[in-house]
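Lab notebook: predicted structure, single chain.

Context: the supervisor wants predicted structures on file for every construct in the current expression panel, including those that have not yet been purified. This is the next one on the list. No modifications to the sequence; it matches the entry in the shared construct table.
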Amino acid sequence: MRVFMKRSTDREITLKDLKEVLQVLILLCDELKETVEGLKVLNSEADRKIRRLEVIFEKTEPLEEILTKEKSVDEKVLRLSEGGLSIEKISKMLGIPEGEVELVLNLYGGKKCK
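Prediction complete. Output recorded below exactly as produced.
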């Protein structure tokens, strides 16, 4: 059995050719399904991480407030450290030596200073 397809010239497509095309399409569909499932997992993980970050940001005082409120340098160091900034970044932001940042963190042991 042969199927004919009209183009500029008649071109024969055999049943065998169609079966091969179908097999390729089935493989592509399977790969696409796997890719979609992988993307769903990634999307779910991204959503979970976004929710975690939103919770963290809700609990964290905005950086501008930390730096502009009348607070001691020690309290600013502790608040910035609680926000996840490194000693180097805190030092640069506050314009104090890294050793002083380390000293404050060690002195208060992560406790809030007053």
